[in-house]
TrEMBL record:
Name listed for the protein in its UniProt record: Sulfur relay protein, TusE/DsrC/DsvC family
GO CC term, one of those recorded: cytoplasm
Pfam families in the cross-refs: DsrC
Major localization class: cytoplasm
Statement: the UniProt record of this protein carries the keyword Cytoplasm: yes
GO molecular function: sulfur carrier activity
Annotated keywords: Cytoplasm
Subcellular location(s) per record: Cytoplasm
Lineage: Bacteria, Pseudomonadati, Pseudomonadota, Betaproteobacteria, Nitrosomonadales
GO annotation terms (biological process): tRNA wobble position uridine thiolation
Superkingdom of the organism of origin: Bacteria
Family statement drawn from the similarity comment of this UniProt entry: Belongs to the DsrC/TusE family.
Length: 107
């Protein structure tokens, strides 16, 4: 997305209103807003989240993403929080184009 592109509709906290509006270019824009430079490992997590959402129509619990990352790249149990230091919901869900999960803290 370039500077003249119009971002899709978001709620008051910056989450997409319609997850179908998401694409990988938008993820790059959203990540830059969070001061995150997306690495291959970020993309493994984000693509898993998108695939899980497409299949189940719910946002994957952080435990599922943690297990997927462990199977794909190894690393610590805290890898999700190393990738998204301000939290799974606040950063990972937003960058992956999810709606804000109801009842979850922003941590």
């Amino acid at each position: 997305m370039d500077a003249t592109s119009v971002l899709p509709a978001t709620d008051g906290e910056g989450y997409l209103v319609d997850p179908a509006d998401w694409n990988e270019q938008l993820a790059e824009v959203l990540a830059r807003q969070e001061n995150i430079e997306l690495t291959d490992t970020h993309w493994i997590a984000i693509r898993f989240m998108r695939e899980f959402y497409q299949e189940h129509q719910v946002i994957p619990d952080v435990r599922f993403v943690t297990r997927h990352l462990a199977a794909q790249v190894g690393g610590s149990r805290n890898l999700v929080f190393e990738l998204f230091p301000y939290g799974y919901v606040k950063q990972a869900c937003r960058i992956a184009g999810m709606r804000r999960p109801r009842g979850w803290s922003t941590g």
